[in-house]
Amino acid sequence: MDKLSSLRAFVKVVESGSFAEAGRQLRLSRSAISKYIGELEQSLGVQLIVRTTRHASPTETGQRYFERAVAILAELDAADQAVSQSQAAPRGLLRVNAPMSFGTMRLGPVVADFMADYPELQLQIVLSDDLLDPVQDGFDVTLRIAELESSSLVARRIMPVERVICAAPGYLARHGTPQSPEDLRRHTSLTYGFLLTGNQWKLTGRDGDHWIQPAWRLCVNNAEVLRDVAIRGQGIALIPRFIAAEALASGALTAILSDYIAPPLALYAIYPPTRHLSVKVRLFIDFLVERFGRNAG
């Protein structure tokens, strides 16, 4: 039995949930993938995969074996890369997932400069505000602006992302300007989804912490939408400053409650844990730290 090929086939089946898709990614037939999995299960004396006509999923034992197999294959790949790339420029494909707004507003020039420095690398950038799974979706690096939950993945903090409370001058003229966090309870709020705090806003000033449950009319997982709706006078938004900066500078939005701050989010680079981080991933993350880490977001 080719144990290494069987491990690779097994990992791909679990990640993709399909024998056919695993075969496509490994450029093997579905029957070859099935043969590898069968030989692996026979050698171990346990069932690793539950097969249906439409889906393949790991058994409880298979899930534990998958976690170990991923680590083993990552170690082998890292060892290969350490040898082959130690004296050579990085090459191959680097798959990156990033938030939509950050990608469109801040990432382009950085990616262009990175490509100029490493011309033998291919970059595939997937912009999405969905919480994609870095491992299941096959990303080398996932950029996320968030309050991170505990995870088996490795996260490197790139920079803080300051947030600002703002509204259109027209909205404030009609409804009044809040003078304290408590005043926000009487206003219409535009909120961002996916934060660990839910729709609660935490604001901190000289008088301590304030937890506000805003009366929201819009909850969306894209801060550019919040900004644009706020500009149209539909409520008060709490959004990253880099997204609101142009509107604040032009007067389309006005910052309020400036004596209070919301806990900053942060831009993180997330990647699967390996003892030897691949050269292309390390170079890309170091590049982000060098370009973004010197300045607040």
UniProtKB/TrEMBL annotation:
Residues 1-59 form the HTH lysR-type domain. Keywords: DNA-binding, Transcription, Transcription regulation. One of its GO terms (molecular function) is sequence-specific DNA binding. It comes from the Bacteria. One of its GO terms (biological process) is DNA-templated transcription. Pfam families: HTH_1, LysR_substrate. InterPro entries: LysR-type_TF_proteobact-type (IPR058163), LysR_HTH_N (IPR000847), LysR_subst-bd (IPR005119), WH-like_DNA-bd_sf (IPR036388), WH_DNA-bd_sf (IPR036390). Belongs to the LysR transcriptional regulatory family. NodD regulates the expression of the nodABCFE genes which encode other nodulation proteins. NodD is also a negative regulator of its own expression. Binds flavonoids as inducers. This is Transcriptional regulator.
